């Protein structure tokens, strides 16, 4: 039961198919949608265009909050004329915002494509505003622009921007980086504490006043595979990374916990005692939920950076056969342990030329295609079964208790396709569709 | 710089996408960074389109900026032509590409593509989505259509429907039928479903029907001038407007106005006794100018509502909406700031909102029913069933849609009858929402309170000056929940006007008598 994981291939040095072309992915601003829910006293002020505001609104899907803790300072023609002007305008908008929202303790100035292109210096603005509003509000800047960041890299840029300001500590401690839903984070902390590991802090914190410090005796684990810059920033502060497969599925969770337990000298007995019951539950749940996935093929378009760890879960725990595993970019230090475990076979691609990739997806006709919302319905209409990748970012999927749910997310589209019986041969459906226009 | 939380309109290039996606055989090469592809999902998810929008994004990155974004554009443009073989191409820049000034139009022009290439200049930092759609369609029409011989039979073009439009799909069907009944055939519908080839044939119609001024007016004006085609000014939403529209068509086409009203139910439904309860319902209207103007007329003349406020988010229609508001004796609210709209609704305290999906959320928070009359659209605004806004069936659909959020007339009487029933109280929730009823604890509470009855002051009023005495507060709770807010406000206003410091049961009924209509 506790034998080390068999390495399927040593896939680590596997060649990458690198592509450059049109990318069908979100920019980093999208991460604000979940970051602002996690960081409850933070406001995310995008300095950008109407497009940025429209993207956030479209990605957030529904407008639940009258005044959400994010907004866009929309650049206008006058701002584009002179720089000094834009800085003063920003000061004025921040002043208005902070006087209306006294609950805000952290303000993130988020750079966008237009603000990067006109070289609006948000670092300078953050310094100036921090000086003005300290200690009540801490002002930090990061870029979520599409010319620099892809989707989940927005979270990476945000966390990496926090790290340099963290106080120094010599304490032997664990930092877990990555925004997780509260319920999942509590499960994770429960497991780590039961293993006797501590002190533990998580990044990002829910509130500004929760202390996080970092130093040479700090070790850190990543709960999300897209935190390459955060990894580098923590390393620069002297902390050491505990490399491990990511905690998806029973196997991934066990491997992730084991790497940390090993670092903290936890005995096998304790590890088994703490993990045996949830491992068993997770295995049973995955077995049950993954039934429709067994022996089926999967093609993953690049989206959230979760693709490699999820391909590991799908191939090793759900009996699937991966045809192509796309990622926006591959950070081998971070996802190396997952790549090593993936059985030989899939093409690993980095970057995207969406039309070429669509051709490969059509040719390979996988039983399940994992892709973004812009591609899902068109591919369904072509007869492919798809899973929206964005749901994997917004749904709790980490650790033991979510392992079955994770398998279920992939199984549902296949179950659905099997359920629907419209009793219409494909040809006649196409005729009807033609007649519609 | 202006802080924006939620927006009614996207940037102008999204308007251009609405035109390109509505059409066939047209491709849009958009100079844009990674991330702008988010707009694809509006079409594939909200409208459930079964193919990708015909848009190629150049996807430049930071490292390209110093180097060669222009070449990136040319490559993308050439590859898009080879892959999709469109009949015509539109080229333009998104907000970021506008800043790097690569001139997509000029570059595409030098490439010698064998199809028409139409450059778009859409100022992202000044204008918005509706302008983008209107301007894009205008540029396509200007580039492709020419004066030509009219068709032998009387025909018209339907102008303005786009992808992601509010019920455009079904309005086209409804209008086509209405016009056919008068003997007027549709020559071309555009942009919705039209190819560039169809655009070249616009000139053979005798006149244009401008369905949506937001997205088709510039093209109609140009065609009036250059192709000699008059266009209709009435938007046929509502019974009165549909009849006016057909009269207008009759004059232009020189054919007698004909309308088959056997399927029209709104007038009778509105006159029938169950609708008595609709009388004088105070409604607030907000949306795009065209839909608001149509809805205002229906609300007042065809439903018997009282319009207490109206406005629009698109400045292009501000003048029309201001003059309409004057006719209705209310102030026009012209804003794209959602918080202004919310504040205005809160102050006017209408009994119903006719708005967009944004106002639906305001209504939820303020406990005011809302029916949606206009874009911006939501997946709910693309129902599977036939559900137009225009013409005969449109009027029927509007009656149902507006009445649905309200409590029905007979139901309202029953609510009065049963309002003290132990199973029927505020916390029980609506029966059709499936939440489990909770037994009321009020009766026991009331007994305890009665036993220790002292003239303790109740709650301080919302205005903070008048005190509600405990028995008055209790009496207020017996007023049905859907009019309780109004009763509270009226009573407090009544007390404040008379300088009363306290509200007793008597004050409550004095106020009721005072405000009785």
Short description:
The complex is a heterodimer of chains A (437) and B (517). Chain A has 437 residues and is of the alpha/beta class. Chain A is built from 18 helices and 14 strands.
Structural notes for this entry:
- The complex is a heterodimer of chains A (437) and B (517).
- The model of chain A has no long low-confidence stretch (mean pLDDT 91).
- Chain A has helices spanning 32-38, 50-60, 77-81, 83-100, 113-117, 122-133, 153-162, 182-194, 228-236, 249-263, 268-289, 307-316, 332-341, 354-364, 373-381, 391-394, 403-419, 426-436; strands at 16-20, 42-48, 70-74, 106-111, 138-143, 173-177, 200-203, 218-222, 240-241, 297-300, 321-327, 347-352, 368-371, 386-388.
- A six-stranded parallel β-sheet of chain A has the order 1-12-11-10-13-14, sandwiched between helices.
- By secondary structure, chain A is an alpha/beta fold.
- Chain B is an alpha/beta fold.
- Chain B has 22 helices and 16 strands.
- Chain B is globular and about 85 Å long.
- Mean pLDDT of chain B is 89; it is low at 428-458.
- The chains are: A alpha/beta (437), B alpha/beta (517).
